[in-house]
Amino acid sequence: MKTQKQLEDSLLEIWCSTEEAASEADYREDLRQMHRQMGVGGRPRFLARTWFYAAAAAAVLLLVMVGEYHFLNKHTQPVERMSYVTSSASKGEFVLPDGSHVWLNSGSSLSFDKANPRDVTLEGEGFFDVAKKDGQPFVVHTGTMAVKVLGTRFNVRSSSHFEQEEVSLVSGRVEILSGDNTVQLSPGEKAGIAGSVIEKKTADVSLDASWIGQELVFDNVALQDILTSLEHWYNVNIRVASDVNPDARLSFKLRKETLPEAQRIVSRITGYRFKTLDEHNIILSRQ
Asked: What strand order describes the sheet that includes 281-285?
């Protein structure tokens, strides 16, 4: 008399052999083999029939369980996800497995599947220096858009704290997809995305990428351009009141100064005042 373990092993062997069966005769023969393994034969009596149906039901259940196990084992693989995160007080530079470099501004994160490091998801602000890889595209996903490139340098700003997402292209070429809209950028162009609407314009994109350096140096630079650099340097949004002259030109340098220290420098030079609305939004006005 076979033990339950021996019976299960025999049924498993028969199940594996049926995966390639192609005819009804094959299935009938396999069924007869299962009957022999379960000790079923001859003319069954009432109790034998009862035992047979119970054993057959158990065998079918076992085969279903074994089949599901083999199917899931073959067709599902655990997904390993990598994440890079910066705190609210730090920035970071990282090298992705494909050789691409990414700088993350404060309070930002980048994640991707280990199996596909050229398809990433960004929250916050990141500057990308993408390595070319045999024509394989590099795609950055954000809340409402996807930025597709082959090899280039560009800045992406995407945060729930700000009214719109931004892409600024330093070199190469990128394609932006948002909803049903698609826009291509050339070097020196930037796009603002609100919802699925994309607005493209020419700009000094070096200002948007200035935060990845070690210092900010302003030499007779317009206030509006300075504020743009400060927005990216400190990962905030600065609004300008109507009583402020955005064309006023200033000269100063920042390296490790905190945001309040930078605000005091600008206020001392211009006489304007910064008002903090929340952690990420500031307004500059005369009063």
From this structure: 237-240, 281-285, 273-276
